[in-house]
Amino acid sequence: MPSTAPPPSRGWFAQLLLRLHFLAGVFVGPFVLVAALSGAVYAVAPSIERVAYQHELTAPSTAAARPLADQVEAAQRWVNDRHPGDAVVEVRPAPEPGATTRVMFHEDGLLESQTRAVFVDPGDAAVRGDLPVYGTSGSLPFRTWISTLHRSLFLGDVGRLYSETAASWLGIVSLAGIALWASRFRRARRKRNLVLPDNRATGYRRTFSWHAATGAWVLLGAVFLSATGITWSHFAGDTVTALRSSLSWQAPTVDTALDGSSSTSGGEHAGHHGGGSTAMGAPTTTPEQFDEVLAVARDSGVHAAEVRIRPPATADTAWTVEEIKLSWPVAMDAVAVDPGTMTVVSQVTWAEYPLMAKAAKLGINTHMGALFGLANQVVLLLAALGIAAMVVFGYAMWWQRRSPGARVGRAPTSGALARAPWWGTTAVVVVAVGIAMLLPAVGVTLLGFLLVDAVVTTSGRRTR
After folding, report:
1. What strands, in cross-sheet order, belong to the sheet with 319-323?
2. CATH 3.10.450 occupies which residues in the chain?
3. Predicted local distance difference test score (pLDDT) of residue 420
4. Would you tell me how many other CB atoms lie within 10 Å of the CB of residue 418?
């Protein structure tokens, strides 16, 4: 019996990209839309916090800053009146005149990596209030709330699958879309309509013009947000971390162990805390030591205004002073100080970071809207809104493509792989498997897309 398989066609790859772009857009679109809208708010959250928490962040006193010891003691009195027994775990001196010092305490019931910060006016040591703060970035409650929504929808590890799926597919859909855009741009007579929306058109063509033009302008932002967002994801993030570790691309950390053993290490998303628990227990610290340790760090080259000072967790570990300046130019130097001799026992500078560790840090800071300040936040806001608009335009195009009486729009023609040459099919399978191994969320959802597509296609053929 002769074969009924269609002959290979030169247009099979463009057809495959169009089908993939459509299917991923339909199924992953809601995830991308939620991530984009919550990300848009997160992008400007630092500016919102400066207004919402102006009282806590602002120091009205114009007097010269008092010693850190006085500020720490004031914070301890404030906390002891409300939560007796809470210990100081970190101090962030006021980075500039008019700003408050943060004295941070451990408190039961807070999120992981979250502490209770008491805000102290450096001029008169008056307490301006207290708030829970999160992570190295020092996120206050509003930014922490929107960050949790953006990352996990308040559903814990299960919710993180949503953001991982959105981040993983965003880059793939964007690259497939720009490839289709480039193909149309090469053939189009009016190339301007693929760069700027054609408002003279109507219906589907007008929506398509907005979708294509918006995609062309936000492509780089979408790919960047996808790549950096993956580093926060659960499964793909672990893969990236393991890859960086095997290639020695991890950020270095200071050795806080006073006996010479290695301290705990961390990545871009978590700071180190100076060793683990031992039988020696936590040492006694005094407010005066914060001034002494900071003076040693300053003499050793830690010059940035934004620093955090952390007491040792155990008696056999050192104090740490780390620069935490996230804006350009970043400052990430750190030292470990022996409290017994007040000498630096370990030091790490930004220059010692491997190139890829620097790139990861800069990328993450940009994703958070911190690297270039307000300009960074505005660009992220526009990119996120553009991505959200593309999703809406995509669904509108699907609706406008429906046949009379149909409930949904028509999908692009299927069967691209059946028309592909053997080497094309092999290449697609190899690439798909490779991406699925690096991005498990893509592999699982792609399999689901293909199964649904096969059922719908088979059902449609039987109906016809």
Report:
1. 127-134, 114-120, 101-105, 88-92, 307-310, 319-323, 334-338, 343-348
2. 57-139
3. 86
4. 12
What span, in angstroms and rounded, lies between the C-alpha atoms of 423 and 432?
14
Check residue 45 and give its pLDDT: 96
The answer to whether residues 176 and 42 touch, using CB atoms and an 8 Å cutoff, is no
Structure confidence by residue, pLDDT tens digits, 299-325: 999 999 999 999 998 989 999 999 999
Closest alpha carbon to 149 in 35, 72, 260, 68? 35
Backbone angles phi, psi at 304, to 5 degrees: -60, 150
pLDDT at site 34: 97
The matching CATH number, chosen from 1.10.1740, 3.10.450, 1.25.10, 1.10.150, for 57-139 is 3.10.450
Q: Which two tokens stand for residue 233?
A: 């994801």
Model pTM greater than 0.70?
yes
Which residues in the chain come in under a pLDDT of 70? Answer: 1-10, 260-282, 405, 456-464
Cα 354 to chain center, whole Å? 20
- The predicted structure's pLDDT at residue 342: 96
The whole-number pLDDT of residue 298 equals 97
3-state helix, strand, coil in the chain (%, to 5): 55, 10, 35
Helix H, strand E, coil C: the string for 362-379 is HHHHHHCCCCCHHHHHHH
How distant is the alpha carbon of residue 194 from its chain centre? 31
Pairing of strands 127-134, 114-120: antiparallel
